[in-house]
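Continuing the batch. This is chain 6 of the set; chains 1 through 5 are on the previous pages. Same settings as before, nothing changed between runs. Recording input and output for traceability.
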Amino acid sequence: RFGNTIYYGDPTKPELLRSAGVEHVRLFVVALASVEESLRTVRLIRRFNPDATILARARDRRHAWQLMDFGVTPIRETFFSALKTGREALVALGFPPEIADNRARRFKEADERMLATQHLVYDDEEALLQTSTQARKELEELFAADQGEGLLGSVARDSDVPLPAVTTGTQPD
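Output for chain 6:
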């Protein structure tokens, strides 16, 4: 109806990708529900068109790492909604929107660093646990600094940004 050619079928089948001109496409968006089909499709696209940009929905961290193995930019399914929810929760608790934005941004950056670091070791369970422990410690230090505590707290206290009172509790693993 809008003048676009559409190819219906199973993207895990090489015949469909070839008939759609896979070797000439600059950008692919892969948003399949099945992790296995997503990875199979990405593998085929890479085989036919190694230079294409691929954006793909990732169900979880492990799926994101597997996509990254193919040079794909993973779009983590629940990550951005979780960030938005966390930001909105901070505002609802009385934090100024600028501080909530800052904390959401810092958490996002820390998590993206951890995703990249763990991508290098995700097939090594011991190293994965070690990087998780290290990342948790980093987040705890950031949260303590936000409350004016710990080593980083003195830096936060010396800044011009007022720190609201925060009630903390234990979080389940």
